[in-house]
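A.,

Following up on our hallway conversation. Structure tokens first:
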């Protein structure tokens, strides 16, 4: 992978406007931020040659049974080759080898760190949590899933 450094509603306002806690508002994470992240992972995966880069449109069914979708991920080709064509068209029943999460400004750091620990507990080999606000990258590895800031 590339190296990294460090509702309101009123009766007179018409339809009720609410913010969902499931999906952050569009301004929370600019599309260019995730697009740039995905592009870098794509370029690295092509040079590296052993795995497939996967964007946030793919959802994984983790060993814990949870369904999750990271901002970007990478899986060894050899692991993808074990899946049936039907499995490849649905939610992937495996945990990616590497994940990258970009902290949206609407999420508190402890919440996103807990999400990274969940990835690690399910088998991720390398995780990056990128916090653009503080310009910090937290690196997660098996056995050290405390997220060492780098």
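Then the amino acids I'd put at each of the 150 positions:
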């Amino acid at each position: 992978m590339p190296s990294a450094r460090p509702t309101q509603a009123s009766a007179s306002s018409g339809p009720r406007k609410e913010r969902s806690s499931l999906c952050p508002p569009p301004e929370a994470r600019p599309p260019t931020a995730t697009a740039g992240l995905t592009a870098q992972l794509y370029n690295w995966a092509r040079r590296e040659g052993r795995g497939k880069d996967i964007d946030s449109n793919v959802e994984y069914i983790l060993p814990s049974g949870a369904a999750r979708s990271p901002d970007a991920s990478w899986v060894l080709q050899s692991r993808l080759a074990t899946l049936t064509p039907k499995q490849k068209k649905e939610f992937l029943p495996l945990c990616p080898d590497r994940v990258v999460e970009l902290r949206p400004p609407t999420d508190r750091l402890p919440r996103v760190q807990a999400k990274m620990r969940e990835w690690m507990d399910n088998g991720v080999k390398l995780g990056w949590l990128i916090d653009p606000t503080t310009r910090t990258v937290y690196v997660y590895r098996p056995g050290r899933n405390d997220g060492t800031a780098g």
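Residues 103 and 111 are 10 Å apart (CA to CA). Curious whether your intuition agrees with the design.

B.
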